[in-house]
Amino acid sequence: MTPILETKYVFTVTARIGDVVTAGETGIGVRRIIPIIGGEVTGAIAGKVLPFGADFQTIRPNELIDLEAKYAFETDDGAVVYVENKGMRFGPVDLLQKLKRGEPVDPKLIYFRTVPRFETGHEKYRWLMEHIFVGSAARHADRVVIDVHQVV
């Protein structure tokens, strides 16, 4: 018998974002780059999102958005944690277009899930590299909020 798949909430990443840069239609969709300019980490891990990195997105013709963010955060006790967070965002086309314009949309109406992976040399946080995590996220005009859950 296999172990039961469960998750537990661990921490929240709030990544502040800058202006969207668009590379245009690439043949597989519209490529967008969204700079990550700071933010904070709260919960079982506390710290700040470092002011570099970006979310590299492809918006498919049906408005499904593939996301791949690369950034880092520094914990309050000085550990630097590198993050690669892949995921997808999808929902009704009119609501996705409102989000693209920076207009508010109820996060419950948009499917926005991610799979973050972490790297760090700091012994206290090595457990981040030894587990699978999933994120439930919400996009706002100036930030993305991700609740990170550990798969146990």
From TrEMBL:
Similarity comment text for this entry: Belongs to the UPF0311 family.
Domain of life: Bacteria
Name of the protein described by the UniProt record: UPF0311 protein TSA1_03720
HAMAP family, sorted: UPF0311
Matching Pfam families: DUF3237
